[in-house]
Amino acid sequence: MGESDRQLANAVAVVTGAGRGQGRSHAVALAGQGADIIAVDLCADIDAIPYPLATKADLDETVRLVRAAGGRAVPVVADVRDLEQLEAGVRSGVDELGEIDIVIANAGVVAIGDTRTRAEPVFDAIVDTNLKGVWNTLAATVPSIVRKGRGGSVVLISSSQGLTGRGGDGSAAMFAYAASKHGVVGLMRSAANAYAPHKIRVNSVHPGGVATPMILNDFVVRQMTENPNPALSQTLLPDASLVEPQDVTDAVLWLVGPRARYVTGVSIPVDAGHVVM
């Protein structure tokens, strides 16, 4: 890759949920474009979430891949639900790499197939991670972009379930997921207005089902097999029931790059047509 292809040279990016899946894909691709990465992940399971989350070994592998792609990397073990912890982790990354230019608020959880209607711990875990965690991420990172003074780009990773209620089954898990991902759109639109005077663009990306461990795990596969919900996987494009992490990453790269310099306040589906069915 030539220097002209490194559109993000000298940029510093924060990626939450960077241990694996979409977060890892975004972090490595950003590094390939010249960015240095503050890679944030909880690196622990959440009791109410019924599948294993990323580990410290996963985050270490992301860091290795970022460095192999040409970027510097600072791993941060922090819970996006805890603002104080997240702020401390981001500060440690800024101390080493410099002030922030790009934020990818990617951390999220789901409990597809959990059909309980009154599972309050599941509801709280999903909303606290997917919505409050995004708000915390903004609070922990945007002041650094403002201090740097040259503008920046923030991408909030929502979901196709942030644009449609299709697939709702009355469960606490699906209510929480759809509500939290719709809430991310509200955060995005409000932040796009609030941060525009600082030349900070804010957009959201809405993947359909993505081939990551969030979906491809024993619990979800078993539950979806036993309790199929066709509305969750219906798409317009054939042979595209799941998109790949790189498909989402390509949209992220465009949004944070110079070709999208006048794009802010928009929601971009990457879902093979799920939301328009």
Automatic annotation (TrEMBL):
User: Which SUPFAM superfamilies has this protein been placed in?
Assistant: NAD(P)-binding Rossmann-fold domains
Q: Name one Pfam family in it.
A: adh_short
Q: Which GO terms describe its molecular function?
A: oxidoreductase activity
Top-level taxonomic group = Bacteria
Q: Which UniProt keywords apply?
A: NAD, Oxidoreductase
Which family would the database say this protein is a member of? Answer: Belongs to the short-chain dehydrogenases/reductases (SDR) family.
Q: What is this protein called?
A: NAD(P)-dependent oxidoreductase
Q: Give the organism, scientific name.
A: Mycobacterium helveticum
